[in-house]
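Hi R.,

As promised, here are both runs. First protein below:
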Amino acid sequence: MPSQSRAEIAVRPRGASVAILAALACVMIHGAAAQEIGRLYVSRPPPGSAFVRIAATTGLAPNTKMLVNTTPSALEGSDTASRYVAVVANRPVSILVGKTPTETSLVPLPGKFYTIAIEQAGQTLAAKVIDEGSGDSNDLKAQLRFFNLTPDCKAVLRIAEGPAVFDGTDFGDFKSRAINPVQAKLQADCNAGTAQIELPQLKSGDHYSLFLRKLNGTMVLSGQFDETEPYREQ
């Protein structure tokens, strides 16, 4: 779900240059067609699969290696959550963060999406399962989701110096809505704490998640586009 830049040279080609450009255009067309065919035949999860991702409540080191069942996953760069991983529905899910197994009672239902919020609790890792439902989608609008990962807080997400977008979101819960593609500054309020983020320019069909956390005593509002790991048969 990410953007490109394009440069054009205002020179009129002649002779051999025209032939070279025509050949390049042909290669580009064939390359694009090959990409489309690759997308068409890419491996897809079996029908009725569920989708699980891991979010860091108190912060995990970037690129921490994780396993969802037997599928590798990771927090990339400054992301708060991993990509979604396809799992077999109606079977318990096992999570390994680094070398630490994380207990969770999650038995995912077919076609549903889940975020598992991981929190360091002494020498162990605690997991809180957030059931996101079937992942609403609207090709004409963008989908915005707000996750409150701050304990003892009923969070409000609003347009900075403007009206509320999501009101009263409990810890370990999320709210979602379809919005018109827009770019704006958003603010999350949590008790006496507050944090802001500049929302990127969303396009129709985009899914974007915001996460409110408390890191080292400071409120942090982070965001990322929602993505799914390419499916690989285990």
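And here is the second one, sequence first, then its structure tokens:
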Amino acid sequence: MEQLVAFLTEAANWQGETGIPNRLIEHLAISFLAVLTASAIALPLGFYIGHTGKLQLLGINIANIGRAIPSYAVMVMLLPVMLALAPVLGYDPRLGLRFLPIFLAMVLLAIPPILVAAYAGLQEVDRDLTESSRGMGLTERQILTGVELPLALPVLVGGFRVALLQVIATATIGAFLAGGGLGRYIIDGIARRDEGMLYAGVLLVAVLAIGTDVALSWLQRRLTPRGVRVATEGGVVADRPSDA
């Protein structure tokens, strides 16, 4: 505990490229970028499956395969490929070592929960609402954006919540491939036998994950329609006017 406190209170550990603020930014940057990229891939497919009811088997298989592949194995497999493609595609070889394998592995990790949340959220919308909307003359795009998506938002946020937490936790092992982020403290702490650095890395990753979960949990609740919350919790709307 003393070593942990000493590391966290050392001014030098809060400055420069190896300082906690910079490592935190690195961790958040790759995590959010991976989730945003995964969303660009998974959301259109998930919306199509959920809205039309087609390709459900494909969506389930993609989700299951994505969950079954170990992220670290993906990083290791992508590493030689990214390094070999660097002179061909013209990007800096350091990207093929430090960024691309980790980033692509995180994208593959984030796709399944977002994909499942996208089509499951839309499929949970009452079909009577969508049929009534069609009867009113709304186009399929209007039904998707004006009826289905607002009601599916809590489920979508739940998918983002799962994806982001998985990515934040797993991005830590990217430090094994010379990546940045908070995982560097864990890897370097083990290599240097510095228990203060090691425990600080574990604590910072845990605090980041818990803080993210709490924030997204609050957002998910805020986006849940009040009627759905009341029905789910088995409560009663306190300010509902009396029928008397």
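A quick note on the second one: The longest helix spans residues 20-52. Let me know what you think.

Best,
J.
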